[in-house]
Amino acid sequence: MDPVLVLVFGVFCLLLLSFWRQNSGRGKLPPGPAPLPIIGNILQLDVKDISKSFTSFSKVYGPVFTLYLGMKPAVVLHGYEAVKEALVDNGEEFSGRGKLAIPEKTNKGLGILFSNGKHWKEMRRFSLMTLRNFGMGKRSIEDRVQEEARCLVEELKKTNGSPCDPTFILGCAPCNVICSIIFQNRFDYNDQSFLTIMRRFNENTRIMSSPWIQICNVFPAFLDFPGSHNRLIKNVSQMRTYVLEKIKEHQASLDINNPRDFIDCFLIKMEQEKHNQESVFTYENLLTTVSDLFAAGTETTSTTLRYGLLLLMKHPDVTAEVQKEIKRVIGRDRIPCMQDKSHMPYTDAVLHEIQRHFDLVPNSLPHSVTCDIKFRNYIIPKGTTILPSLSSVLHDNKEFPNPEKFDPHHFLDDHGNFKKSDFFIVFSAGKRSCMGEGLARMELFLFLTTILQHFNLKSTVHPKDLDTTPVIKGFASLPPTYQLHFIPV
Fold first, then answer.
1. Rounded to whole angstroms, what are the CA distances from 145 to 180, 191, 294?
2. 3-class SS at 364?
3. What is the DSSP string of 98-126?
C-alpha cells in the first residue's frame, strides 16, 4: 500500500479513536461545547483570560459544564451555589488536586500544594500543627509581622519621596515573615541573595500565568520544546538548591529537644519515623514542602499588596478615608495591631474589596474528585479535573452590585458597619482552602495600615490615567508595573 495512504489512514483512525474516547462518557458528564479531536475545546478558550471564557460558556450550558482540555474532560463550577455545593458540601469527594504539567515535573506529587491522598492529608495536618506551634494565628506571629512592618517603613523612608517601583520592597516583607517561621531568620532588604529570591518568585508567577504555560498544561509534550517553561523549571531548581543548603545547615546544628523552626520539626519527625517504610516524612518531601511554603507565603501576599497600593492611588478619596480612620483609632504614636481591626470597619472593607476586585487566583488551583460521584444528576468519574471559578463568585452581580467597580461599600452595611459575605472566597473553600489564610489576612492589614499611617501615596501620573487592569489573568492575576512616591506624613 502507498505509504501516504497508510499515513492518512493512520491519522484518520487516530482522530476517530480520539473522537470516540471524548464522547463515550459525555452522557454521564455535564453538558458542554463539542470538542475537536485531540485538542478538545482549547481553541474556544481565551488563554489570556480563561475566567471570561468560563462566564460565556456558563450562559449557554449552566453553572456546571464540561470542557475538554486536550483529550481529557474537566468539569467547571461557575457561581457560588455550584462552588459551595462541591467544595464545602461535598468537600471530601472534591478534595483531590488536579494535575498541572509543570508542578508534575517539579514537585513529583510531593509537598502540600500538588500532592494527593494520604500523602497530602499527612503533610497538611503536620504543617498546620507545626505552623501553629510557631505562632500562626497567635500573638507571637503578630509580633513578628509588626516588627517586619517597622522594617518596611524604614526601608520606604530611604526612598526620600523619590519615585520607586515597590515590587521588591513589598515582596521582602511577607517573605521575611515566612522565613522566620521555616528558617528562623530574616534578610536585610538589600541582601543580594534575598533580592535574587524575590526576582525568581516574581518571574515564576508571571511565567505560570502566561498563555504558553496554559497550553503546556493541556499538552505536556510541549515541555520537551524550547520555551519560557524552561526558565521557570530552572528557577525552581535554583530555589530548591537554596532550600537544600538551609536544610543541611539545620541538620548540622539540630537539637531534638529544642526545635527552632519548621525545618527542625520536620527533621525530628523524620528521625522518629525512620523505620517506617511507608512514612511520608522523607528528605525529598521536606525539600518540596518547605519550597511550597516559601513560595506560597511570599508571592500571593506581596502581589496583593502591590495591587492594593495601585488601587489606593487610583482612588485617593478611599485612601483619605482609610487614613482618617487610622488617625482616629490608632494615631501616630504606636504601630497598628490586630485588635484595631474590629474598630476600623472602613479599612476592613477596603482590604476585602482590594482582594475581591483583584481576583488573585481566578480559577483556583485545579481540584479532582477522589471517587466516582453523582453531582446534580451527573456522574463525574474518579480523577476528573474540577475547575472552580472563584472569579464568578467574587464578581457575582447580585451579591456585589456593579462588580467590576472598585467599591468598599460592597462590604459595608447602610450604617457603615463591616458586612461579611459568604461570597468572599479569595482563599478558596473547603478542605483545599489556603492554610495560610489567617497569616495573609494579618499581613495585609498590618502592612497596609502601617504604610498609610506613615506615608501619603503619590502617583507619578494623574490618578485618572492609572490603569489598574491586570496585565495577565492566567494562573494568577498580575497588576501592571508602576512607580509611586512614598511621601512621609
1. 10, 19, 16
2. coil
3. PP-HHHHHHHTT-TTTT--HHHHHHHHHH
Cell 454521564 sits on residue: 28
Query: What pTM was estimated for this model as a whole?
Result: 0.91
Helical H runs in 25-116? 50-61, 80-84, 101-107
- Give the tens place of pLDDT for each residue, 355-393: 999 999 999 999 999 999 999 999 999 999 999 999 999
* Distance in angstroms (rounded) separating the CA atoms of residues 134 and 93: 31
488 φ, ψ to 5°?
-55, 135
Count CB neighbours of 416 within 10 A: 11
pLDDT value for 18: 42
- Residue 211 burial (CB count, 10 A): 15
For 156, the grid coordinates are 520606604
H/E stretch holding 455: strand 455-459
Helix 167-182 to helix 139-157 angle, to the nearest 10 degrees? 150
Contact (Cβ atoms closer than 8 angstroms) between residue 432 and residue 97: yes
pLDDT digits (tens, 9 = 90+) for 18-60: 444 444 445 599 999 999 999 999 999 988 888 999 999 999 9
| Among the listed residues 383, 462, 403, the one whose alpha carbon sits nearest the alpha carbon of residue 116 | 383
